[in-house]
Design brief:
304 residues; mainly alpha; 11 helices; 2 strands; 1% strand; elongated
Length: 304
């Protein structure tokens, strides 16, 4: 069983290299080039939260850097690296949405479902392989690109600091912790579980509807409209919006963070204690059962 599952996960990786290996890597390389350009003085980065520019480092700013506490240095470095990594996460996020919608629709469209049914692999095993790929494997595929971006960013700023006599080369490295890599991994796994109901809904649409895009959108819009008319509420809309966003910034998360940040392990534990998280898990179990049943009884291979 485990050998079959492992083989099917490897197949998913091979078939979706472009979306989950090449695309994030290309985005990471572009971001690395931009960061290097910033510290060569060729450009700068303006965001609502940060201003990445070599023009910042005047004498007053340098004095503030020298007087900064280790805690404030760590907070700034973590926040800056988080903002820089967002384009990679967004790239993978769009890839996940496309993958979820197409993974079962494609096997109906090209009739490869007939072939997969001829193998001694159950529908449940097939669905679980895709579930493990989405929840566990894809976050692990993203992490090396984030690490590359972080290392190039810290190396670039360190070289700039020491060559311009601002601070020592090791200024940022003393406030950068390898343990943050594990925080990122667990945070991404938590995000995958948080967004899982949306991804599974798209998969279900791909197993049943002839036009998966319309099939995924129209029922949700109808439910939102009916809830608003009948119950004068918008719980379904809020559920969808929260699941499409970062779990640490959702309405149901007990702590409100003003800035983008990589969450602490304690925050992940806090997420696991929320009712909203387990409602999503329960919805995911129901959707998984629906996908397995629909795929096992599906004799209509027509997809437009």
């Amino acid at each position: 069983m485990m050998t079959i599952l492992f083989t099917m996960i490897r197949r998913e990786i091979q078939e979706h290299k472009l979306a989950f290996i090449y695309a994030p890597f290309i985005v990471a390389l572009v971001l690395c080039l931009v960061i290097i350009s910033v510290y060569l003085g060729l450009t700068d980065i303006q965001t609502t939260t940060f201003n990445f520019s070599t023009d910042l480092y005047d004498e007053e700013f340098q004095e503030d850097m020298l007087q900064a506490t280790p805690e404030s240095k760590t907070a700034v470095i973590r926040a800056g690296l988080t903002v820089l990594g967002l384009p990679i996460l967004l790239t993978v996020g769009f890839g996940l949405l496309a993958y979820s919608l197409s993974t079962f629709a494609d096997e109906r469209k090209d009739r490869s479902l007939i072939f997969w049914r001829s193998l001694p692999v159950s529908d449940l095993t097939t669905v679980m392989s895709k579930l493990i790929f989405v929840v566990i494997v894809i976050p692990l595929l993203v992490v090396p690109n984030l690490f590359l971006l972080q290392l190039i960013s810290l190396l670039s700023v360190s070289v700039y600091f020491v060559t311009n006599d601002i601070v020592s080369f090791g200024y940022v490295w003393t406030s950068y912790f390898i343990s943050d890599w594990f925080r990122i991994i667990f945070s991404l796994w938590a995000q995958a579980l948080w967004s899982l109901p949306i991804l599974l809904w798209l998969m279900l649409a791909g197993t049943y509807f002839k036009k998966p895009v319309i099939g995924a959108i129209v029922p949700l819009v109808a439910l939102v409209v009916l809830e608003g008319i009948i119950f004068k509420a918008n719980n379904i809309q809020e559920f969808i919006e929260n699941r499409l966003g970062f779990w640490s910034r959702s309405d149901s998360f007990p702590i409100e963070y003003a800035e983008a940040r990589v969450v602490d392990i304690s925050d992940i534990y806090l997420l696991l204690t929320t009712q909203a998280f387990w409602i999503g898990i329960l919805a995911s179990v129901v959707l998984i059962a629906g996908i397995v049943y629909t795929r096992s009884t599906n004799n209509d291979y027509t997809v437009e």
